[in-house]
Design goal:
413 residues, alpha/beta, TIM Barrel, Lyase, Ornithine Decarboxylase, Chain A, domain 1, 8-stranded parallel barrel, 6-stranded mixed β-sheet, 13 helices, 31% helix
Length: 413
């Protein structure tokens, strides 16, 4: 596998490789966080989600940037990511007392419990098995209590406590002092759809569940729901106003969990009245680059790539790139004579992908781009060719494109 580099623009370091590298703009990431916090309002906290290696952007880089930008919380998938986030914050010069809180959001197995307690992570829980494992770990580690956040399944049917099981779970929490209910949360399945009936039902169920928590005598410090689209959709339907009301009802602070928007992307809002007012102010954080490794002239009738899916109709000049689907450049970006595929940017101009994207190599058309030569930088994702552009051609979403960019990386001396 080739190597990827990571570079903080505006800093003194640059990380680069022969094959391909990623540049991460610290400035844009901090600015995006500021856009989201201002949109949410001073009374709503914004969690910085850095799970899945910060959506392919490098959690070790992005976590400290978000912490310095004011994030009180970082969101990760599991205990392994949580421990890595703690280590990155420590390496960035932040001692434990001054680090953001770190939430593990995607469940746990028995082996995770001790790590969660050891690294002072805040787990999301929703069943007795999880809570019993954590309570046992608290006792083994000699800790007095561990804050947890209880997820409600308000209608997404993925994870969370079902409403009918809520009394048993709340009763357990009230009776066992090893765990402290620090927060209550849910996740909306259709937050990007303005006027969604599913979201309306989920809000009602979540509001009732939070009231049940209060009735059980529990007083969480946090109530949170939704993701990036919840902030963007607030203009259309006042999502955050309702979240504030639910949180205020139990004397808690409201919070939203921002993920993809931090990195400059949003799912398109759907439905009447939808307007991506927040997303319009965000800028992509990642630029993925490679270099031309060969240039050749071909004649009309020459076939390009596997299975001759593209045959030149006239003379062409082609550039060869040392990346392919093993690096995350999707095979769906391939082209044929009958179907246009994706493109990259060479010398500031579009260069269409020609033929099939293969495992480690891709051919692009530079016929109309003057002076292209071996060693030229090529933008795979960045200005002129975004992750959204890749996603539209590949029939997927920008999340998958960004998370799929992969390779080893090294620090250039």
């Amino acid at each position: 596998m080739g190597s990827r580099g990571l570079c903080l623009q505006g800093k003194c370091s640059r990380i680069e490789s022969v094959k391909s590298w990623v540049e991460i703009s610290e400035e844009r990431l901090a600015e995006n966080y500021g856009v989201l916090t201002r949109a949410a309002g001073a009374d709503v906290a914004v969690m910085g989600v850095v799970k899945a290696d910060a959506y392919g952007h490098g959690a070790a880089l992005c976590g400290p940037v978000l912490a310095r930008a004011g994030a009180e919380w970082l969101g990760v998938a599991d205990a392994v990511e949580g421990a890595a986030a703690r280590a990155a914050l420590l390496a960035a010069g932040m001692d434990r007392a001054h680090q953001p809180r770190v939430m593990t959001m995607s469940g746990m197995l028995g082996d995770d419990a001790d790590a969660i307690v050891e690294h002072d992570l805040t787990p999301v829980v929703w069943n007795l098995r999880q809570m019993e494992l954590l309570a046992a770990a608290v006792k083994r580690c000699g800790r007095t209590a561990l804050p947890v956040h209880l997820e409600m399944d308000s209608g997404m049917t993925r994870q969370g406590v079902c409403i009918e099981d809520l009394p048993e779970v709340l009763g357990w929490l009230a009776a066992h002092k090893e765990l402290v209910l620090d927060g209550v949360m849910t996740h909306f399945a259709s937050a990007e759809v303005a006027g969604s009936e599913q979201t309306r039902v989920q809000r009602e169920r979540f509001g009732a569940a939070v009231q049940a928590v209060r009735d059980a005598g529990l007083r969480p410090e946090w109530v949170h729901a939704g993701a990036s689209s919840t902030v963007d959709n607030d203009i259309a339907e006042g999502s955050l106003c309702r979240l504030r009301e639910v949180a205020a009802g139990v004397g808690a602070r409201a919070m939203v969990r921002a993920g993809i928007a931090l990195y400059g992307y949003c799912l398109p809002l759907e439905g009447a009245g939808a307007r991506a007012a927040v997303c319009e102010r965000l800028r992509p954080v990642m630029t993925w680059k490679t270099r031309v490794i060969d240039v050749r002239e071909i004649a009309a009738g020459d076939a390009v790539g596997y299975n001759a899916t593209f045959v030149a109709k006239q003379a062409m000049r082609l550039a060869l790139l040392p990346v392919g689907y093993s690096d995350g450049l999707r095979r769906e970006l391939s082209s044929t004579n009958a179907r246009a595929g994706g493109w990259v940017m060479v010398r500031g101009e579009r260069a269409a992908i020609v033929g099939r994207v293969s495992m480690n190599l891709t051919v692009v058309d530079v016929t109309g781009i003057a002076g292209v030569q071996v060693g030229d930088e090529v933008v795979l994702v960045g200005d002129g060719v975004t992750a959204d552009d890749h996603a539209r051609v590949a029939g997927t979403i920008s999340y998958e494109i960004l998370c799929g960019v992969r390779a080893d990386w090294r620090v250039a001396v």
